[in-house]
Amino acid sequence: MSDRIKIKALLQTTPTEQQVNVKGWVRTFRNNQFIALNDGSTNSNLQIVVDFENTDAAILKRITTGAALSVTGTLVASLGKGQTVEVKATQIEILGDSDPEKYPLQPKKHSLEFLREIAHLRFRTNTFGAVFRVRNSLAFAVHQFFQERGFVYLHTPVITASDAEGAGEAFKVTNLDLNNPPKTETGEIDFKQDFFGRATNLTVSGQLEGELGAMALSDIYTFGPTFRAENSNTTRHLAEFWMIEPEMAFYDLDDNMDLAEGLLKYVIKYALEHNREDIEFLSQRLQEEEKSKPQQERSDMSLLEKLEFCLNNDFERLTYTEAIEILKNSTQNKKKKFQFLIEEWGADLQSEHERYLVEKHFKKPVILTDYPKAIKAFYMRQNEQDANGHETVRAMDILFPGIGEIVGGSQREERLDKLEQRMDEMGIPKEELWWYLDTRRFGACPHSGFGLGFERLVLFVTGMGNIRDVIPFPRFPKNAEF
Amino acid sequence: MSDRIKIKALLQTTPTEQQVNVKGWVRTFRNNQFIALNDGSTNSNLQIVVDFENTDAAILKRITTGAALSVTGTLVASLGKGQTVEVKATQIEILGDSDPEKYPLQPKKHSLEFLREIAHLRFRTNTFGAVFRVRNSLAFAVHQFFQERGFVYLHTPVITASDAEGAGEAFKVTNLDLNNPPKTETGEIDFKQDFFGRATNLTVSGQLEGELGAMALSDIYTFGPTFRAENSNTTRHLAEFWMIEPEMAFYDLDDNMDLAEGLLKYVIKYALEHNREDIEFLSQRLQEEEKSKPQQERSDMSLLEKLEFCLNNDFERLTYTEAIEILKNSTQNKKKKFQFLIEEWGADLQSEHERYLVEKHFKKPVILTDYPKAIKAFYMRQNEQDANGHETVRAMDILFPGIGEIVGGSQREERLDKLEQRMDEMGIPKEELWWYLDTRRFGACPHSGFGLGFERLVLFVTGMGNIRDVIPFPRFPKNAEF
């Protein structure tokens, strides 16, 4: 191991006929002579030139797609095209065989659907190597962004007794014997005898706990798994996904939007700088894929252009009320081409409306603010009623091309009376959230926060079409394999 | 907001009578004149000097412990001791009151037990401010360490159908109506009708999935929550905790130990460099706490000294067999002072033995290797039987003073036949882990990995005594509050 050099580093080395050792997996083996070796450090394979006349035939036979090798040899400039250096092998050790009759990955194009079924092996393909290296960079960039700004990374609980946020249906967590659970006198399950002494579930958001941290540490962020037990079989939903949720004391909605826009640009820039090769590959992949689509469904911009465009343009900021006017007066609406026609203020925006605003009208990312109170969560700060009698809250959603909502946030309601009133109206039990309300009783202050769905971000930056392809082992209805 | 400066930055500013705005929470208010203001960016409070003769009495009354303020004033050199600068307030705005009759946190020492019950407010104390800032730094340092080495951060699933690892009892996850679950013809719960179409639980480790990533990307790490449904009411166990699990292709056990020791030193060094003030505070706190203990229970070294000591010394590496000899021949054992006497090879080491080795015998961190096969997991690489007929595996545990096991790892068994045989012996269903076994069928290679319990690391670096005090909202038997 100590002498092994990774392929990414090797490909950047000046060849001076030095001895090197590389380890990796065979992608292809041509003419009993050229091995394309990959070790996951980069999508570029290293060409190994085999001296087949002096290599044992039994060894040559075992150099098959998927086999693990240790190769020692001389690093030389390559005469072939596609690479600048190659290794002339002096010693090849087969670490692990891969029976070509049985190995599911062959050197040809496999469908994404097929690869999802062998998700334990799909890391070994160019596409998924690139996707998971980009995902890695985006995750680290998120941390670096917040660390540079003095935010404290807070691990909010995954198992929680509070089901009050109403962000979606939660999975139950229990340690009871389900076939024979203890019952109360009235015949209900007796959760007092469960592990935590009460009914618990998997968190749908770390926000409420995050606010507790912000009310002492000023700026915090979470980055952890969240869950929805919703039977959504779409390309945009997962039952288990990762969320980033910053909460900031003393931030108003404008500060909040500035931070969110800054974060998105920062992490996209980071990925472009650190994963240029992977993103170029994915951009190419997307263009290939789109060739099979009718002209009008193809993107105007390549993936790379789309990312650059995001970096170089301010996101368009407007209120929900302004957006409704635009949508109502759009030819799309007038010609009844929306599935859900926009008739009046108060309508919840559907994906088709969001995409119209982003992709057709503004042609750039859009931040919508000040949504109707009736369609938003209880903790959002209430605006004064406007001249038309409309009641809105200080919400903001960031809409991205091809993705729709990527960020949802708000200024939080810091006024105890307004908050309690809204909880009462929405039937949210105040006693369960006594600790949340305490932050409004003691040293309350204006504050804001948002949630960024990490997989949606990865989807955007990799140009993949299905959210199940940007998380290692996706969880969705009827699937928890691996 | 735009003009607000955080207190940590302000305290490092040269005072030139400039106008500044700060926002934070009142820690104390003395003589109607001196506010100690804290915003969580540092443990050091900012002194605000109030011109009480020209300040409204109604405002003065509302400057109470816990209240949120926005203060505008002039930054001047401080004449008082304990700070170099202070702010002469020209304007004080009360953002949020804090009724001193009701606010649970008073400017006095509260017990850790009491603070655990108000974990939503304990971030507002010096101790927990320091603990969670140190925790933040350690988490980021972990990421930075691996990123610098080209590892890919992998999010392994939290919900899993595989219960096979045997690392401990798992929580069940379900979306069934527990009061009225669907049953099969034989009267068992029908998990085919559950969300995932099968019984699922919360992961106890991401290792097995991590290995799948390493067999393509070479080096990966996880950093996520893991769970144990064990009724352990100790100061070292949580039902929900965060683990770091790197897996490395082509690493043998020595490489593995080097990486783990390197990681621990890197993150401790990072915390000492970035959180010196917090760690000094926690070191002081520990010394105070130990004053109430009998002399022989006090530490030889302060927290700071212990951390420096860890950085500056190689960890002691020895085999389990060597450790057993040391323990068997120790006066502790001979005088029967161990609760569990070491009589023969094969005994599982208890906490008292680990602590003896680390704290008494070697007086430094210890790495024990090559444990008896019988007491370790199925996936550890089997050694050849030794001359005494002992069967061991290539395991390694890192033992830390005051903590015991902080890292557990091994070289993994890459030989399919040996692995399957061991699974059969231990009754682990091979068909459930078909995907894991596939990595031994196709391109297997020597590889290694380990798990680092993140909270145990935080415990060590902060010098706290109870693991419930180093995670924001601890989960343990009969407790899932907040």
UniProtKB/TrEMBL annotation, chains A, B:
Keyword Coiled coil on entry: yes
Domain Aminoacyl-transfer RNA synthetases class-II family profile residues, every copy: 132-472
Cited InterPro entries: Aa-tRNA-synt_II, aa-tRNA-synth_II, aa-tRNA-synth_II/BPL/LPL, Asn-tRNA-ligase, Asp/Asn-tRNA-synth_IIb, NA-bd_OB-fold, NA-bd_OB_tRNA
Domain of life: Bacteria
Secretion signal, residue range per the UniProt entry: none
GO biological process: asparaginyl-tRNA aminoacylation
Protein's recorded name: Asparagine--tRNA ligase
Coiled coil: 272-299
Family: Belongs to the class-II aminoacyl-tRNA synthetase family.
GO molecular function: asparagine-tRNA ligase activity; ATP binding; nucleic acid binding
Catalytic activity: tRNA(Asn) + L-asparagine + ATP = L-asparaginyl-tRNA(Asn) + AMP + diphosphate + H(+)
NCBIfam families, A to Z: asnS, PRK03932.1
SUPFAM superfamilies listed in its UniProt record: Class II aaRS and biotin synthetases, Nucleic acid-binding proteins
Cross-referenced PROSITE patterns: AA_TRNA_LIGASE_II
EC number: 6.1.1.22
Statement: the UniProt record of this protein carries the keyword GTP-binding: no
Gene source species: Mucilaginibacter robiniae
Subcellular location: Cytoplasm
Subunit structure: Homodimer.
Main location: cytoplasm
Gene Ontology CC terms: cytoplasm
Enzyme class: ligase
